[in-house]
Specification:
Blueprint: E1 3-6, E2 10-13, H1 18-24, H2 27-33, E3 39-44, H3 49-52, H4 56-62, E4 68-73, H5 77-86, E5 94-97, E6 100-101, E7 110-115, H6 145-159, E8 167-172, E9 174-175, H7 177-183, E10 192-198, H8 204-210, H9 213-216, E11 220-224, H10 231-243, E12 246-249, E13 255-260, H11 261-268
Parallel strand pairs: 3-4, 3-10, 4-5, 6-9, 10-11
Antiparallel strand pairs: 1-2, 7-8, 11-13, 12-13
Helix pairs in contact: 8-10
């Protein structure tokens, strides 16, 4: 069985080789699995990880591969502007979408709690002052103000700065995963969705529970599970993914990584040994 029951109601995903997940998120997977096929990466909550050099999307898209492109979704206006500037050399194959992902489309822009653009998104420095927030401070923007307020305990302890003093309300368009994919010509009948990454600061599970995975069919799915996500909520998502034909592993407390079963079988044959 894909899922194991613990007690009467709690489920965990069946573990499988960590090397498979690790390698699947690297260029070698896409080079083999999508050779000579048009494919795309869709990254929800892109921020500026590209600039920091620790983003698997960046490493793969920087390497020219015929038919490969990326769609980076970032709701914070100031961050999206910086991201557009940074990916300018790759604009023929990288598109920045200034919007947020939501469980369903919103007819009107929604209130989003962003962090002041006086905070350096790479270093955490506040303007020209000597005050510094943790480097991740601008990464906790959310539709849920309390999500930022919870992070404030860390910033007060680590930097002595009240993070809530730097919250700004902005209006952002909000789309479901299916709409984001369709708007960017991704999915069955268009470019294959090779990799979907969801980092929505607490809204991750709700977005996935509402998504019609059959309409986008990501080969690899990575999503965040660390932000006060309930055990039952995680289990519901794992069950849904298993029913949709995915194998998942949670190698650490931050992210879950899943492979579509047909891709997992194909890729397991490519692993050494």
């Amino acid at each position: 069985a894909m899922l194991k029951e613990i007690g009467n109601s709690t489920y965990i995903p069946r573990p499988f080789a960590a090397e498979m997940i690790k390698s699947a998120i690297q260029a070698r997977f896409c080079t083999h699995a999508f050779r000579n096929r048009r494919h795309a990466f869709l990254q929800v909550g892109a921020h500026l990880a590209w600039e920091n050099g620790n983003d698997p999307f960046a490493n793969m898209v920087r390497l020219p591969e015929p038919g490969r492109r990326a769609v980076l979704v970032e709701p914070q206006p100031a961050i999206a502007a910086k991201l557009r500037k940074f990916v300018e050399p790759y604009k023929s194959r990288v598109n920045v979408v200034e919007a947020a992902a939501c469980p369903k489309d919103s007819a009107e822009p929604l209130t989003f709690y962003a962090l002041s653009n006086t905070i350096n998104p790479k270093t955490g420095r506040i303007g020209n002052t000597h005050k510094h927030l943790p480097f991740w401070a601008s990464q906790v923007a959310s539709f849920d103000r309390s999500h930022i307020e919870r992070a404030n305990a860390w910033t007060m302890a680590m930097a002595g700065v009240n993070l809530t003093d730097y919250i700004e309300e902005v209006k952002v368009p909000c789309y479901s995963l299916e709409t984001l994919a369709r708007m960017n010509h991704i999915g069955p009948g268009a470019d294959d969705l090779a990799l979907l990454s969801v980092d929505a600061e607490g809204l991750d599970l709700s977005i996935l529970m509402a998504a019609n995975l059959g309409s986008i069919q990501p080969a690899v799915l990575v999503f965040e599970v660390k932000h006060r996500q309930s055990v039952s909520g995680k289990c519901d998502v794992y069950k849904k993914l298993a029913q949709a034909g995915y194998e998942c592993a949670c190698a650490h407390t931050e992210n879950a990584e899943c492979l579509r079963q047909d891709v997992a079988r194909m890729f397991s044959c490519m692993l050494p040994g």
